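In keeping with the milestone schedule agreed at the kick-off meeting, the structural modelling team has produced records for the first pair of proteins. Each record is given below as a sequence line and a C-alpha cell line. The laboratory manager (R.T.) confirmed that both were archived under the project's standard naming scheme.
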Amino acid sequence: FEWGVISFVIDDDKFEDFIHEKASWLGNAATNSLFLIKKSIDYGTQTPLNIGLQFEQMGYAINSQSKDVAEGVSAFLEKRAPEFQGK
C-alpha cells in the first residue's frame, strides 16, 4: 500500500460485488473524461515527459469546456449525483 502499487485488498467472497461496484462507477462516469485520461496515460508512456504533459494540458483544456464538466460541477454544488451525457 505505501508504494501506491496496490489500492484494494478484497476478500474472495466480496470480489464480484466489488467488481460490479467499480464497473457501475465507470458506466456512470463522464466518458469523454475517461477517454482523455486513458489517452493521456497511453501517450505519456510513449513520449518524452514534456510532450506527454503538453498532451495532458491540451486534453484538460478541451475537456474543461465540456457540458459534462459543467454537469459535474453543478451536481457537486447541488449535492446530487451527476447525469453525464458524453458531451
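The second protein of the pair:
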Amino acid sequence: MRILITNDDGVTEEGLICLADALSVDNEVFVVAPQAASSGMGHAITLHVPLWIKEVDMGKKYRIFATTGTPAD
C-alpha cells in the first residue's frame, strides 16, 4: 500500500518520523510536510511567492519532502 503522511509541525517532528518508521515496514511511505513548524496556519494559503518542494535525506528507507508552503497549500 502507498501511504502519504503529512503534518503542520515540520518534516523533522518526532511523531511524524515515528509514524513513518512504523508504517514503512510493510508499506511504501511518502512524507510531505512544511520545512518548519506551521502550527495554527491550517487555513492560510500562499499567494504571492513561489512554492517549492525539496527532498530531504534523513537516512530513512522512505522518501521525505519539505515544502515552503502552508499546510493548506
